[in-house]
Amino acid sequence: MSLKSLGGVLVLLVVAGGSAPMRAQAKPPNRLERLERWIAAVGAHRPGVRDEAVEEFAALPGADREPFTQIAWRFAGFLHDPVRVGRRTIPRESGNERVRMQELAAALLKTTTDTAWLHRAAVFHADVMMLAADLTQQADLEAPERGRPTPGLVNASDGEVHSTGDRNWSLAFGRRLIADVAAPERDDFAGAWFHATSVFLLENRWLGELRPHLVEGEQLRPTDQWILFDQGTLFEAFGGNAVQAVVQGAKLPAGIHPDVPGAAAANEQAAGYFRRIVSAGPSFIEARVRYGRLLIESGRYDDAMLQFDAALSTANDRETLYFAHLFALRAEQGRGHIDAAFEHGRAAAQLFPTAQSAAIALSQLALRTGDLAAAIAPVETIRAMRTDGLRDDPWWRYYLGAGRASQAIIDAAWSTVK
Amino acid sequence: MTRLGLAFSLVAILVAGTFAEQATFSSRAFVVRVDVLATEKGIPVSGLTAAD
Question: Is the pTM here over 0.80, yes or no?
């Protein structure tokens, strides 16, 4: 069975659910016309809105993407300086095209700067990915880019591979644009853009998309605390039972394997990222809590408790406090401090009374002490709460990392775009 | 059977009974999008395309 035949599943899903607008045109725009449409789209786009331009570029056929990105990249060079323009060539550029690009760049630079415009363009391409990925996937299936190596992505759950796909070209192009600002390592918006797009990917568990995204983000901004935090969260997710189970159980054709690190290696990498954040400064409390959890995974209970004690003395966010207490229960249990472990468990349960993770942790702890009544009580308490399954349990959101608040992060980042 | 072992068994039975009686506790399956890698005899193969 080939990847292509697996992709048939996705064809059916997308076609069956397809309500994509048709952009039937007698004659597709040439690359210069496409460039002009793009410039107009970037200028008119309201960040966070799936408008017609977002849909148009999301649905760009695979064969048209390279000619478009080539001329758009060349055009971005005209926004900068002759040196950068000179390094960016396109096949068979006509004199008319060159003159028109110079005119378009000059017109834009009367009202904005190269960096401000690149910010807008990067937001546009992030929105194309975040708001209209369905149209891009449909275009991938209808007219894939031919002859180009395509890293495979699979969507899987419970050992089932539901569909295959390609990396989102618009996100990759957005990265090129954000990397093209004068000094991305000092550009606050470049960091905000990477974080906003990363939390979207985390929230949707598009971990295969996120991996190269953050590699490039870290290369551009090696000390950015949020990029390091998102990296740590990504590898924590890789190391978590849920992803490991999905990956190990996925039924794939012979010779095709999930490219996900094993749990131990993933946790080690995650711990490395959180340790870097914690070493750089004590104020990033959630990084400290997550680092502590990973120390428990390697049996370092005393070191873990140092992190939790520090976090609990300064945290004021209810979810972060919950995680710190929940994990401190395990660390104290590992140290043999059963009373202290119970205290942390009760503190967690008080913060989120309907959370089953704290109840189960308390129950398991009591079970280990041989106290049957105490083991049953928290489970009974949860069972008796008839909330029709609508329970607020932070643990369910833990592996989303900062993706737990993705919309607020994206809105805040996009609101700064001029 | 030790006291602890008996306790484990009893709780297991009670909890199992609870699940059967009423789906009060939640477990969640989720879809995750991850990379796949083509290998031949255990060695990664580059240039995997959608047409493969």
Answer: yes
